Queue: 2 jobs
Job 1
Amino acid sequence: MAPTDNPHEPFGIDYAPAPESTAVVNIAKTYGHFINGDFVEPSSGATFPTVNPATETHLANIADGSAEDVDRAVAAARAAFEGPWGQMPGSERGKYLFRIARQLQERSREFAVLETMDGGKPIKESRDLDLPLSAAWFFYYAGWADKLEYAFPNRSVAPHGVAGQIVPWNFPLMMAAWKLAPALTAGNTVVLKPAETTPLTALLLADVLQNIDLPPGVVNIVTGAGATGAAIVDHRGIDKLAFTGSTEVGKAIQRAASARRIPLTLELGGKAAHIVFEDSAIDQAVEGVVTGIYSNQGHVCCAGSRLLVEESIADSFVERLRRRISTLRLGDPLDKNTDVGAINSADQLQRITDMVATGVSEGADLFQPECDLPDKGYWFPPSVFTGVQQSHTVAREEIFGPVLTVQTFRTAEEAVEKANNTPYGLSAGIWTEKGSKILWMTEKLRAGVVWANTYNQFDPASPFGGYKESGFGREGGMHGLAPYLHERADLTGGGA
Ligand code: NDP
């Protein structure tokens, strides 16, 4: 069917509102840091607000972490590492991770609603992606806790000690789970900093950790902004660092870690190519491209933000894409029918707005469907740039918003060259019916993850991470476990 044969409008389909109830969450007025198993006041007494980006309503006051708070957290983590956690056999450690996983499943609605309120992402994503994957990460790594000697045969491995972990605002709970699960399984203790704009689910996780009687000090959560993260990076008591966030901050952390020669993993930005060949299943490819760039409002490090489409089908593909994004429902993130939620913060909205203005001023053609943006909150419509040159800023820099650029190619070689023409190397997508073409492309694409005839699929057993300015080290699978262990000098075994 030609795209214009079946416009959606004549059906007059509309959806009744289907808001998820917020009664399931109980947000405190003020939150302290979670240190040594308890919520404690920040040493400075300072707090900052966290708001719902869809409504701009104030949700809670959050402790602003100082270097002194970080010091308390590191001391608690060190004591736990040298005390109960460090002595505990892997089989016992694993039980704690299983308990965390089960509680995440049991309380998943509460977590999902809170994630959506604090971060603005559609409830269907928090409910169907963030929560199941967070629980899966703990389940998966729990299974390794008593098997480290099998994971690394003929090597004697041991945990580093205290891990400092800094996570961003786009998948707040999920990024915390990706980092905590392998660190704890390996026997480390942790000081974690959630992002300033999305601290609430990490703090709810602290409640889970109390409920399961995790020994005090094994996980410590210090809230705050960039300065709090920098205090963790600079603390001499940290033995291993893991960071997910912007390339710019990642580079600063790499300088600090290399000066002190401590192990580091970095998961940074991306500018993924999403490559569509003329022999692909076109309607499925349109869906894949839409999922690749508009889910979580494009706040996704592996977002397929650069569409490369074979020239022979470019016009009709772009037409179908425009029609499809005209049907996306933007609005209340708590509504179960919402596809595109709120932009995470006023700052991020400004960044996206500026980047799109740059794209227009440099000569690319902007398409945005007609859609009513709510009066309150931070919103940006799904957007597509055509007429894009490789030199355009929007084709080169990470926008981290619902903005797709479209370029064309004539041969697979040209597609590879354009896909790799970026400082990033996190992910890529390919749509074609030819398995041989997929294998050929996969070998040549310089990306840590390549999806074929699908996009944004994650599994805790599968390593995820990048090349070049997308960082180094992997999360997931045994590749994600290894950075939390080092080889013992003595060959006495243990740790498991
Ligand atoms: P940041 O890299 O600043 O934030 C990531 C985390 O690092 C947050 O917890 C942040 O704290 C913390 N942080 C900030 N500065 C420092 C520092 N000097 N030392 C240690 N930790 C620090 O990303 P932004 O939130 O500023 O977003 C900017 C851009 O980064 C986005 O537009 C996007 O392009 C990219 N980005 C990429 C992500 C990815 O997954 N690849 C995730 C997030 C952003 P706090 O938030 O509290 O300031």
Note: The chain has 17 helices and 20 strands.
Job 2
Amino acid sequence: MQPLTTLLDALHFAADQHRDQRRKDVGATPYINHCIALAELLVRVGQVDDPVVITAAILHDTVEDTTTTFEQLEARYGLEITAVVREVTDDKTLPKDVRKQLQVEHAAHASTRAKLVKLADKICNVEDVITSPPADWPLERRREYLTWSGKVVDGCRGTNAALEARFDVLFAEGMAQFAA
Ligand code: NDP
Ligand code: ZN
């Protein structure tokens, strides 16, 4: 498949896999909007033009949050894209606090492509926590989320200056807002 065909196929596939899921904001945004947000941020802010990264961003939560398997992704999208998705997928058999700690420890050892997807995921989630947070999160929990995201992003630094700067602006904005 041509890269653009693959990208659109992945968008179609991810939309279908996430079809019954919503984000945690009050408006219950369709889940796929988050996947599109990562891709758009990578292209617009990060100036990323590697179709493997953009396609992996679209697919980044399919294995973690739906019935999709890595075998399915490999058969449909090949080893390169699947390898990036694998790197950004948490092992859901582990307790949540362990998974979160492993994200911090693994970030610095990830491939450049996986670091780009991780950066985009953290930026989009922090942006969501600021503008459309999970309905029941008090300020302290939002602060904690930003602090944890900052630790993961620290492991990804030196990968894309524009994305890292975007995170830093949001982080400062969020911390100022949540301190109130
Ligand atoms: P969650 O992992 O439960 O929720 C955050 C994740 O939800 C994001 O990483 C994102 O993941 C997804 N998400 C969906 N919608 C939104 C949205 N609108 N805004 C932001 N993210 C969204 O929460 P935590 O990160 O806080 O992790 C849970 C941890 O917090 C546990 O370790 C637990 O022990 C602890 N905890 C803390 C509490 C507190 O009050 N401090 C209370 C309860 C638990 P993705 O991009 O993958 O979809
Ligand atoms: Zn995500």
Note: DSSP finds nine helices and no strands in the chain.
